[in-house]
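INFO  loader      accepted 1 record
INFO  loader      residues=180
INFO  predictor   begin
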Amino acid sequence: MEPVGDVKPEQAVGKRTECLIGVDPGLNITGYGILDVSGPRPVIREAGVVRSRARGSLETRLAEIHDGLREILLAFQPDSMAVEQLYSHYKRPRTAILMGHARGVICLSAAHRNIRVYHYAATQVKKMLTGNGRAPKTQIQFAICREFGLTKTPEPADVADALAIALCHFHFQHNSLELS
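INFO  predictor   done
INFO  writer      dumping tokens
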């Protein structure tokens, strides 16, 4: 688990009523963003990445993702988890299969802690944040900086993606947004 230091703008004021985690699944880098919800706007509690060794076996890499996420879930005890749905380009089915393994381990980690998992398509997240379901990563990063008042773009991009997924979940659950 690697928290990204510049992504913690402030602590939540008052009693924490809900904690949620957004996860951007990856076999090498899995981004996460923890949001506290105690008022009308969520506040970043922590954000960072879980890394696996790029040269390790698939089993070892999945275990590293599971162990890192388990630590995060134990430390922050989120009430819910939002995960990006699997996307596959027909020219790269192997990538989708590998990402499916990572998503499976992430969902298993949540199941072991009795955390409900919500799944969002990347196009839903992008549309909610920018109004464009095909927005580039830089536009998502800019939107995250704007939404949370960050002065520095979260790096790597997986962190901004995880925060975007968490923010999408917040808006979808708390504002009954209809995402299409």
